[in-house]
Structure formats: structure tokens, C-alpha cells
Amino acid sequence: MTEIVEEPYLQLIRDILDHGHMKDDRTGTGTKSLFGYQMRFDLSKGFPLLTTKKVAFNRIKSELLWFLRGDTNIRFLLQHKNHIWDEWAFKNWIESDEYQGPDMTDFGLRSQSDPEFKKVYREVKKDFCQRILDDDEFAAKYGNLGNVYGAQWRHWQTRRGGTIDQIKNVIEQIKTNPNSRRLIVTAWNPEDVPSSALPPCHTLFQFYVVDGKLSCQLYQRSGDTFLGVPFNIASYALLTHLIARETGLEVGDFVHTLGDAHIYRNHFDQVKEQINRTPHKAPTLWLNPEKKHIEDFEMDDIKVLDYHPEPAIKAPVAV
User: Fold this and answer.
1) Rounded Cα gap, residues 185 and 167, in angstroms
2) Topology adopted by domain 7-70+165-305
């Protein structure tokens, strides 16, 4: 019998549905949640990209490459048809004094309940994204999300005015001191939290080397388990593969520790549909064998092979 690599995730969403606590939340949507949940994925047994629903791998790899480039402007994502960060940049725009368009207050919730508003919202956001692509000055002002992951990973600001490249440093430490217990990258900076478009959800990750294998543990303070967590699992699995490639190691486990693991109230039906589907064999990750350093990888250098998922299941994003 083929091992189902995504089983830890399926058990997570079952457990939240069966044992979670109903809570109010920042978005006004409402959630059912559990606190302090851990999953473990053996990356040698397959790449943990869900098969019980199609997950857009191109979005995952373009977002990770965006992080690894130290970029914080959504223009790179839009150039690769990736819209998963649009809402946060859009929110900055419509809340600015320069915005003179239709009222977009609570656009996330209103677009779910008001079909006419949804049409207007989509057109306004479409124009916003096109302007980010076409207008350098506008993109610089409203496409930038502040000190989100790319900045914290590659350009951490020090009190003395310098920067720290955490990714470069952790790779060097893995190569030279693999037994270190300080192989850590953090994105959580209390000073930046008030000004960030979205304070980091995946706040800290740590590497561990044993028997020639590289494992990674992520601590995620908050996880939208239907929409976000499947991306996070695949993204950090991919990150582990990329850093293992650069450091000459095989891959071990990806351990995913969640603080507030939640399902939004308006995702309940979608989750129930997903857990009633039959999972399939996990795909295989292909990395261009000619590439070694993370800075060298482009979109075409990363692929998943033999990925045969069930159809995608749509759900609204809570902003």
C-alpha cells in the first residue's frame, strides 16, 4: 500500500473540525481552532504537495523565490501571475489619502455577501495590479509590503544600521558547524509588527543535521489550515530541498509546529469536501541538477513530477 504523505495534514483538519474551539478573530469571519499542533513529513517518501485538492505549485515556488531574493514588493509576484499577496498591498492603497475610487471598506467580507460590490471590487483590484506592473513610482509606493519575510530573511535591520543575511549565514553554519543548535532563521521582529501589512505567520524555522540529512522545523504562530497551511508545508519542504542541495545533504523531515491552527467559518464546507476525497501518491520534486546555489534557481529550475491531484476547491481569503 502506498504511504499517504499528506496524512498528517488530513488528520490536522479532521482534529480541528472534531475538537476545535469556536473563536472570533481579527478578520471578523470567525474560526474553529486548536492551539499547539505538530505535523511531521518524511521528505524522502515524497514531496508533500496535497493531492486531495490541487495546490498551485507555481505560486508556491514563485513566492519562495520572492522571499529568497529578499524582495518585499508584489510586482515580482504579479509578473509570475501570483496574486496571493494582492489583498494586503491593495488594502494599503485603498486606505491611503490618494485613493479616490469606490468605497472599499471591509472589501474582503463585503465581496462574499454582495455580488454587485464583488464586481466593482474585482475591477478596482484588477486595475490596481495592472498599475503595479506598469507604473514604477506607484509600485514602489503601494506594492511594497514593508518588512515581511524577504526583508527579514535577507536584510534584517540591526540597531547599528547594518543588515544581516540570515539565509546566507544559516547555510554557512550548516556547512561548517552542522551540529550547531543555533541553525535558526527568524522573521518575528516586535519593532516591525505594528507597521507590517501582515505580521509574519511563519515566524521562525530551525535546521537539524544528522546522518547526512537536513531536517527543518517551522514554528507558525497562526495557520489558515485550508488555504494557507498547504502552501506553507510545500514551501518549507521546497526550502529544505534547496538548502540541502546547496549544503550537499539529503533531505530528512519537515516538522510543522502550529500555534493557532484554525479553519475559518466560511471554509467548513470546503474542508468537509476535502476530507471525503481519496488521497493519491505524492509527487516527486525535480530540481535542475546544474543548479546548486539558491540564488541561481529560476522558476523553470523547479518542478513537480507525477502530480495527479483532485480538483481545486475554492474558498475566500480572510484579510
Assistant:
1) 7
2) Thymidylate Synthase; Chain A (3.30.572)
Query: Taking a C-beta distance cutoff of 8 angstroms, is the pair 31, 263 a contact?
Result: yes
Catalytic annotation present for 201: yes
Q: What is the pLDDT of residue 3?
A: 64
C-alpha to C-alpha distances, 127 to 121, 217, 246, nearest whole angstrom: 10, 39, 40
The response to whether 277 counts as a known ligand-binding position is no
Residue 263 labelled as part of a binding site: yes
Give the pLDDT score at 291.
96
- In this prediction, the residues of the chain whose per-residue pLDDT falls under 50 are 1-2
- The pTM score is 0.93
* Catalytic choice (171, 201, 209, 258): 201
pLDDT at 2 (0 to 100): 47
Is position 46 annotated in a ligand binding site?
no
Is 264 assigned to a binding site?
A: yes
Query: Which pLDDT score is estimated for 197?
Result: 59
Cβ atoms < 10 Å from Cβ of 190: 7
